[in-house]
Amino acid sequence: MTIAKADYIAGMAKGLAVLESFDTERQRLNATLAAQRAGLTRAAARRHLLTLAHLGYLETDGSYFWLAPKVLRFSGSYLASARLPRVIQPTLNRLAALTGESFSAVVLDGEQVVIIARSGSRSMLAYGLHLGARLPAHATSTGRVLLAAKTRTDFNAWLKGRELPRLTSHTTVDPRKFRALIEAVREQDWCVASEEHELGVHALAVPLRNMEGRTVAALNVVAPPQRLEAKLMQKDLLPLLLEAARELRPLV
C-alpha cells in the first residue's frame, strides 16, 4: 500500500524500525546497534529505545534493551482476529492427528516467512516452529513455494542484489542455482527443503490458493527424513497436503 507524503508519519516508521531490529540473531541491542540496524543516528535510536521502554514494549538494564512481553499483544490480536489462521487450524489439526507429524500454515513477509497456524508434535518445538516464528524464505520449503507464486518480474526484483545467507552446509546460496530451484517449484507446484534452514529439519510445502487463484499462504509438514524420501512422500504426505489445499480453497 502506498500513501500520500502528507499522511506518512516518519516518527512512527522510525519507532517501528527500531522495534523490528530485534530478532533471534540480536535479542539485546544498545543504541549503537539499534541505530545500525534501523538506519538511524545513534541519538535518534536512543530516543526511540527509551520511549519504547517507557511504553512497556522494551525492557532495559540502562545500557542494553530487549523485547518485553507486551509486544505479544500485536501477534496475539492478529491470531485471535485474523480469519485465515482460524479457517486453516482445523485442517492442520486433522492432518497432525492422522499422521503424527507437524503441520503449519505460513505467509511471506519480505525476506522471511511467518507461521500463522500450527499443529502437531511438540518435539518439533525445539526447531522454533511456533506460532509467529519468522524463518528465512530462501532456505525453507514454504518460502520457496511463496516466492514461486510471485511473477517472474516480481521474483527477479526480490532476488536482485540480495545476499542469501548460508545457514547450514546444505543451504543454496548461489543466485543462479536458487533461481533454478524456484523455477522448478513453480513448475511442480510443491517443494522439499532438507536441512537447508537447520540440520535435522526436513520439510515439504504446497501453495494454498483462493478461488481467484492467488496464493495466500503455504501449507507444510515437517517430518523425519525417511518420511520425505521421494516414494513415501509422493505416496503419503504430498497427496494429503494437496488435498488439504483443495479443500481450503473455497474458504480462504
Description:
With about 250 residues, the chain is an alpha+beta fold. It folds into two domains: about 5-70, Winged helix-like DNA-binding domain superfamily/Winged helix DNA-binding domain (Arc Repressor Mutant, subunit A), CATH 1.10.10.10; about 80-250, 2-Layer Sandwich (Beta-Lactamase), CATH 3.30.450. Helix content is about 40%, strand content about 20%. It has helices at about 10-20, 30-40, 40-55, 70-80, 85-100, 140-150, 150-160, 175-190, 230-250, and strands at about 60, 65, 100-110, 110-120, 135, 190-195, 200-210, 215-225. A six-stranded antiparallel β-sheet has the order 5-4-3-8-7-6, sandwiched between helices. The longest helix is centred in the last third of the chain and has 19 residues, at about 230-250.
Measured between the Cα atoms of the first and last residue, the distance is 21 Å
Fold-level CATH name of the largest domain: Beta-Lactamase
Largest sheet: 6 strands, antiparallel
Structural class: alpha+beta
CATH superfamily of the largest domain: GAF domain
The coarse silhouette is globular
User: Roughly how much helix do the residues carry, as a percent range?
Assistant: 40-55%
CATH architecture of the largest domain: 2-Layer Sandwich
The overall average pLDDT, rounded, is: 89
Uncertain segments: none
- Count of individual domains: 2
Fill in the keyword field for this structure.
252 residues, alpha+beta, Beta-Lactamase, 42% helix, 18% strand, globular
